[in-house]
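Quick one - inputs below.
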Amino acid sequence: MLVVENISKHFGGIKALDQINLEIRAGEVTAIIGENGAGKSTLMKILSGVYPDYEGKVIFNGKTVNFDNPKQAQECGISIIHQELNLIPYLSVTENIFLGREITTSWGELDKKAMRLKTQSLLDRLKLNVNPDTLIIDIKVGQQQVVEIAKALLTESEVIIMDEPTSAISDNEVKVLFEIINDLRKENKAIVYISHKLDELFKIADRYIILRDGCVIESGNIQEMNADDVIHKMVGREVQMIRKQSLKVTTGELFSVKNLCLRNPNQKQEYLLKNISFNLAKGEILGVFGLMGAGRTELLEAIFGLHPKYRSGEVRISGSATSINCAADAIKAGLALVPEDRKKDGLLLDLDVQKNIGITTLKDMEHLGMLEIQKETQLCDKYRSELKIKTSSGKQTAGDLSGGNQQKIVIAKWLATHPKILLLDEPTRGIDVNAKNEIYKLILSLADKGMGIIMVSSELPEILAISDRVMVMSEGIITAQIPINEANEACILKAAIPKSI
Amino acid sequence: MDLKLYKPFFIKFQSLIALFILCLLISLISDKFLTVSNGWNVMRQISVNICISVGMTLVVLTAGIDLSVGSVLALCGALTAGLLKNGLAFPQADLFIGFTILGAMLVGVLAGTFLGAFNGWAITKFKVPAFIATLAMLTIARGLTLLYTQGFPISGLGDDFAYLGTGWFLSIPVPVWISGIVVLLAVILTTKTRLGRYIYAIGGNESASRLSGINISRVKIIVYAISGALAAIGGLIVTSRLDSAQPNAGSSYELDSIAAVVIGGTSLSGGKGTILGTVLGAIIIGVLNNGLVLLNVSPFWQQVVKGAVILLAVIIDKSNSKND
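Output:
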């Protein structure tokens, strides 16, 4: 029904997809399996018209198609339901379903009656017992998902792509969703199902396609596979990166966390982090791995004092209990956080390199209330040469630099505070291989100087390459702590995959 | 000749070039424009707007806005005038407190600082959008002014006080001195101090600034307090020049100052802009006003022209940044 032939897609110099061939059949649920960054979402964005430029062909019902935008794809019969739902909270179910496709009377007036009737019939078909006039904000996330499916059905979509549909819903809602998927399958729709939860895939899917590093590794009937095979296929790759020279003997506790909990600010009964306890020694690199939604970023943020109202638990630095309720407290206590999204949380994009590096330590550059700009210049020059930040001068605007250099600026501004503990959240996301290796070397040398480092990453090879110990998280709890010499990709991934069903 | 080479130059000095062309045009049509007395006249007229606009620039740099400046100006002017003229009388306690000129002025400026800080507090503590919080203050301060003055002007404040708005010092009008000093201090604040750097950082990326350990609330409260204080100083100048505190003084001044800020190239989304840009913006508006009067343009048309200039300035700014 939907055939993909030799599709490749580049982002800059990085190959996201490499000669992909696959087929999606009507009346079947096809599971797309792969690690973070394997190319799943890029592929789905091509199929649903988000990325109009690519090499290769998409053949839909025998015709080659090339969608310019998602709307075109939808009209053609391919709908995607994103992980983050695209519904408007203060409009009703009916209004959301018909958004952009409103039925009007011959006077040009909205035909509310017709839309409501059609909505009711869609909801009946999906067995969703909700009044079509209810506002989206008043229904549960699982029900919202069904509304998204109704939207796809309204356009008579033949292919429905679901990206992590169960990441935010309860077990009961998952059951309902699976019933709906089974019904859709009987109606001869093609479902593409993307999920990290392997046990779910075994329950619902007919076929599977495994992606790794932008290539199709294998496809076939899911009945012929078991979970261990799948994990093996997902990770089986050779690692071409610098590795730690030797295992360090680390002594002396530098930092520890006891029973750290973080409540969900939106749903007070739910926990984003549950009873997290671990310690970190001087000079140790602790790699933290988890899949999407495991609570990795939240862990670092909670340690750094960003959600004081929702957090409980104890943090000890060099043996003494420390209370950290804002970033300034954290800096004073010797912590530094290099955030996941450097553009959103790390950099002052409009300011120059020098001002970005100086921002954390301006206090030390004051003389009689005036800033001593030459001190800032010195600081900037020091880190430019130490971290090999490639800029023409410190006066270059941070936003104009490459991802790798931007990341080095963020690291530099934190090194300027002389932290004892460095928290790194996805330190090499979106940067090229050379810059990655430079950052790894830097992390290793910092650890050699005695800094304790907690590195969150969703890239397994990275975790294995430079950690002394690996901590695995899943759904807000620690599921494993593995010394590096016992760690391998399969055992880490096994601990990371949620066992919610 | 390659015009592209000159493009960065044009973009950098576009407001200066615009001002030059504007002056050239007006002086070609009217011979009264390019005279020393008219020059000081324009400078004196815009000195109040410059004071207010400097505060507004700081606020806008943090990605905020202060709509209350006009009302705060009126309230603080009236307060100073009232204290100067009538003092504070408590008949029950048989107590009367008189105020010297400096004392009354100090109370006026402190009141403005307090009202501004209150704005900042509401904005940071309760996460009220700046637009709403200062809109509320606009109404509150105007109401308080009317209550305090009972709706009547407070006039006859004496020659000494009039010096502030009408006097000359070293052959330069006193209001121009005041606005000049305010500008100088603000330039130092924005370019040479930690607070100044924080203001740009917060406007550029609030979440990155918070992560860098900057106390966002404190910086914002200080910035709104400065804006309130500068509005109060503007109020003193206005009151002194007219020798009278008018209850409706300063209405719609916030719009003139926002116009100056925007024409001066400061981005309303924060993080980008300079004090000197705003000063240029204020001068452009002042020269435009003056020129339109000299050219006998009807006051109704003056408004239309002013509005068109603001729109044009922002359109040019936007298209430049897009081409880069």
